[in-house]
Amino acid sequence: MNDGTVDSNPDTVTIVVSSPLLPANQAPTITSTPVTSASVGQPYSYDVDATDPDAGDVLTYTLTTAPAGMTIDSVTGLIDWTPVAPGIYPVIAEVRDSGNLSATQSFDVVVSSSGPANQAPSLSVVPNFVQWQQLTPAGTPPTARAYTGAMPYDAVNDRLILFGGNDTNYSLPEWHLLKLFSPKFQ
């Protein structure tokens, strides 16, 4: 260059014009506390809640470790499961933002039996017992009859009636009622 008096050495200058700097993507944060207990056969649920400081980032939920049958809604973060056996089950829930940054939450779900362990039923029996009730000499005795080896049974009142009296084969000077109580199941 020449200003008319002196020649100068040429220099090159580059000027870059750019838009204002965008903030860097920030990772989401899980803000909820996990539900860590469940019962066999009962529905389990836990809603994983997360926030992201970057406005407009879309969050996606996944399970990276989970027991068989456990699912998570990828949009809402709701975990659903029905445990089938007692035990301790590890879970890792992950939330990822649209900038591909993520946060995880690890926890164990302790599954207990929903009641006493399944056992064979037990049967408690109150044994038969016999109670004699004397009908005579108080009261009017029934007509005497011979003992034939078959005792008359009153099924309606659950009792066996023995008739007394005297004949050539059998003698019972008093009249008795035999009450036989059947077993009662409890």
The whole-number mean of residue pLDDT values reads: 75
Strand content: 35-45%
* Beta-strand segment tally: 17
Structural class: mainly beta
> Helix content range of the residues, please?
under 10%
H/E element string? EEEEEEEEEEEEEEEEE
Q: Please, could you describe this protein's structure?
A:
With 186 residues, the protein is mostly beta strands. Helices cover 0% and strands 38% of the residues. It contains no helices and 17 strands. The chain has strands at residues 29-30, 37-39, 44-47, 50-51, 60-65, 71-72, 78-81, 87-96, 102-112, 125-126, 129-134, 153-154, 159-162, 165-166, 171-172, 176-181, 184-185. The strands form six sheets. Strands 2-9-8-5 form a four-stranded mixed beta sheet, with no helix packed on it. Strands 11-16-13-12 form a four-stranded antiparallel beta sheet, with no helix packed on it. A three-stranded antiparallel beta sheet has the order 3-7-6, with no helix packed on it. It is rod-shaped and about 140 Å long. Residues 141-147 have low confidence and may be disordered.
